[in-house]
Amino acid sequence: MIIDITVSPHDSRGTAHWTPAATTGLLRALIPSSAMVFVLGTALLVLALTNPTLAFVPIGGGTATHVTITGNALLQKVTEACKAVANAAGHEFEPTGSSPEELVKACLGPTATGEVSGAKFHAALQEIYTQNGLVDRDFVNSAPHHFNSESFLEGRALIIEGLATIKSNIRLENFKAARETLGRILHVLQDFYSHSNWVELGNVEPFSNLLRADLPLENLAEVNTPTCSDCESGTCPNPILYEILQQKKLTSGYMGIFSNAKPKGKCSHGGASDLTSAEIPRGGINKDVPHAHNSGLHRQAVNVATFASLELLEDIRAAAGDKDFLRMMGIARSSVVCFVIDTTGSMWDDIVQAQKLVYEIIDSKKGTQDEPSEYILVPFNDPSFGPMVRTTDPDKMKKEVSSLHPFGGGDDPELCLSGLQLALTGAPASSNIYVFTDATAKDIHLKDTIAALIRSTKSTVTFLLTGAGAGARRRRSLRAGSFQDYKDLALASGGQAIQVTKSQLPQATDVILDTSTSALVTVLQRARSPGNEETFPFVLDESLQNITIYITGAPRATPTFTLTNPSGTELPANQEPGPRSDTFKPLSNLVFPGQKCRPEPL
Length: 602
Description:
This protein is of the alpha/beta class. The protein folds into three domains: about 1-45 and about 520-545 and about 560-565, no CATH class; about 65-330, no CATH class; about 335-520, von Willebrand factor, type A domain (Rossmann fold, 3-Layer(aba) Sandwich). About 35% of the residues lie in helices and about 15% in strands. It contains 14 helices and 18 strands. It has helices at about 65-90, 100-110, 120-140, 150-170, 175-195, 240-245, 295-320, 320-330, 350-365, 395-400, 415-425, 445-455, 480-495, 505-515, and strands spanning about 5, 25, 30, 35-45, 335-340, 375-380, 390, 430-435, 460-465, 495-500, 520-525, 540, 545-550, 560-565, 570, 580, 590, 595. Helix 3 packs across helix 5 and helix 5 (about 175-195) runs antiparallel to helix 7. The longest helix is centred in the middle third of the chain and has 26 residues, at about 295-320. The protein starts with a strand and ends in a 5-residue tail after the last strand. Keywords: Glycoprotein, Membrane, Secreted, Signal, Transmembrane, Transmembrane helix. It comes from Takifugu rubripes (Japanese pufferfish). This is von Willebrand factor A domain containing 11. InterPro entries: GBD_Hemicentin/VWA7 (IPR056475), HMCN1-like_VWA (IPR056861), VWA7 (IPR052577), VWA7_N (IPR056862), vWFA_dom_sf (IPR036465).
């Protein structure tokens, strides 16, 4: 779909949000104003674990990869955890298919209604896959990370240390850090079965001692014990010495990327990148890639590595519990919702509107897939901020918000960023944070810290700002430079910075209600400076539905724009500011200050 948006060069900010429809194409936006453009979409993503590729390599084309071994184990363990949660809640776990959406919807329960997205589940999987693959890049010459060179004790230490780190991070709700460590130690564990002689010894079950520091690693081949026979062709089915197999000695291949040195008589890893494989005994014992001479051992290694991955995941699940295990995997009710509210004297009318918004979010999301899993409130003033209030009880949150009363704060700037910092450090990752203020940031020195926290937590921050246009009663004004600081942080997080007058605040909060769905994804996000005209193309596909565009500008700006459909026809888009309208047909949703259109999708 090709759509041109042209906004007139007023002092305005454009924010285009999309919930893209089931159609493929481009959107082209021409924005000659100080505009912020966000394009969001309700994503119905399908997890692609088909087309299996090479085992024990990140990607490729063969039978299985680290990704597919990891993915298959994760999906099985997530399914088991979902089933246990469903049974405990007294209902059947009956997914209608294997897509993330179907799995997530069945996991959250049959009584919840509304759109469901597997986007966070998919993103969690991708984080794990990425970190798994990065082990080959970041630790290519580290023997313990691949169980090369008979480094069994050191390799096990990495796994056990990683398990402890994962469990600690889950307890602290640092789920992103837990996922990253999980991806890395799964790679280490899986490489044991490809790089050692575990399957050559006839083992068909995982080596559970690798997960237990209290269990010994016994019968390891000594450093001066020969383990392999010479294989000039490099394609011998099993070059491991008969006596090693008979005595059940555990060994692994030596790997040399920069050196061909290895102990006398030891097996090599093998392959073109292994310089030791040209030294007697030549050849290698890795089962990373299936060849004619080792395809059977390759399949066995893949199978046992999968069982071992399941065993490791079950260890984490048992320690964390089903619900927190699923939260780590991005499967839970909608993200935590956090409100950061300025309580200075000039905010009395904004606080009333914030209270109404909190009530409406709680009431409208109750019993749906988007019902927040937790509510957080952080008030701020000057010279104080906090305390942070956390609760899973919606009625308690209503009571806490109702107790807010404006006081003090006669000067202009307030401790907005201190309150936001408290929210970002106290809330779980991927939270939705809404900031209500009419003042500049007194603690602007925290801006870089806030930006770093946004990057690490992946939380979304939206600012609702009421400034100079809010009326004579305001004792403070929000200068353009201050607004830029908020805009920078909003853009960094994928949120919005909406500057409105008091009368427009209900419409701004309406935008929050429209976008507070777990099924929403950002397709495009842009901010423009005054006087510039630019084209913004992007692709929409059949995985997206319910296109939504938001353009938000300065309180008194009325941007104009044009839209072009896929056939090249320009569609009139100028309308007088007003309430919702069904007369404008080309787009699903369009919003800017003073105007909101909800026409039919193309």
